[in-house]
Design a protein that fits this description.
By secondary structure, the protein is α+β, with helices and mostly antiparallel strands. It has 5 helices and 7 strands. It comes from Ktedonobacter racemifer DSM 44963.
């Protein structure tokens, strides 16, 4: 069984604050100009909705989300295959497709070249080889999110 990632306390506190502000209708942009969304996915065991704030990557016209480890929301998203993205007062249902390590490495390499602020979480730099990117994404899943429909 894969070891789950547990975020440090300061990250969990920042997530609570960000979630509260985003639910109140604030729209804000994270480090490097990445838009922050709320991702809500149903728990794989409880079935209850779980929400986490995330920065979405735009790559070749597609939206992706990368994560620093296989946390519970990642395991829930794998099991559910779909989630709800919320920004401001608008929500949309999205289908999630986990990308292969090779695809994820290419996306991450492009994002790092364009100044992806969380590259240090993956242990890579602009000068890293493709093989280093492929090793880095093994424990860091990347999902492509495709719009399924709008909600009110």
């Amino acid at each position: 069984m894969a070891k789950t990632y547990h975020a440090p306390l300061f990250v969990r506190l920042a997530n609570v604050m960000s979630t509260t502000l985003l639910r109140a209708g604030f729209k804000f942009t994270g480090f490097g100009g990445y838009h922050i969304y709320l991702l809500t996915v149903h728990g794989r065991k409880s079935g209850r909705p779980r929400t986490v704030p995330l920065a979405l990557l735009e790559h070749s016209g597609k939206r992706c989300v990368a994560c620093a480890g296989a946390g519970n929301w990642v395991l829930n998203l794998r099991a559910a295959g779909e989630a709800t993205l919320t920004r401001g007062r608008r929500s949309e249902t999205v289908m999630a497709r986990e990308r292969s390590h090779e695809e994820a490495a290419l996306v991450l390499r492009e994002e790092v070249k364009h100044g992806y602020p969380f590259a240090n979480k993956f242990g890579v730099t602009v000068h890293s080889s493709l093989e280093e990117f492929e090793r880095a994404v093994v424990g860091h899943p990347l999902f492509e999110l495709e719009r399924k429909g709008w909600q009110s």
